[in-house]
Write a structure and sequence with these properties.
Two copies of one chain form a homodimer. By secondary structure, chain A is of the alpha+beta class.
């Protein structure tokens, strides 16, 4: 059942200012390096949905490594 | 005089697979975070010229954090 997770896993939605496929690849690369995340990237809408046990702060800091404008939209 | 530096500063040319302005911004962000570098980004030609005391390996590793295809073209 989507959205049902054990432990502290939560689904968070972020806005990330991606403009091309390579931008999305950068986000993928940086999130995979962090580890412990499952995510979907919605390039046209510049959104990234992340399921993980990491805090929102950690996720924001990680996404910020792309140098792109990032903001937290909220839980989903 | 361009190309004349004291110490171990060298000018290196890298190929970085950037496709848009935001890709170039990511490269700028990551190089600035490394520090100790001066650089020019040539987006149309997907090239980055870096003057620094860092080793080529360090620069390759840093550029690799973008998740983009990166290769060393040589000294300039």
């Amino acid at each position: 059942m989507p959205g049902e997770f054990h432990g502290q896993r939560s689904l968070h939605e972020f806005s990330v200012d991606m403009t091309c496929e390579a931008c999305a690849n950068t986000v993928t690369h940086i999130l995979n390096k962090l580890g412990g995340v499952q995510f979907d990237i919605d390039l046209p809408n510049k959104k990234v949905c992340i399921t993980s046990e990491h805090s929102v702060d950690t996720l924001l800091e990680t996404l910020g490594k792309t140098g792109k404008a990032v903001s937290y939209l909220g839980p989903k």
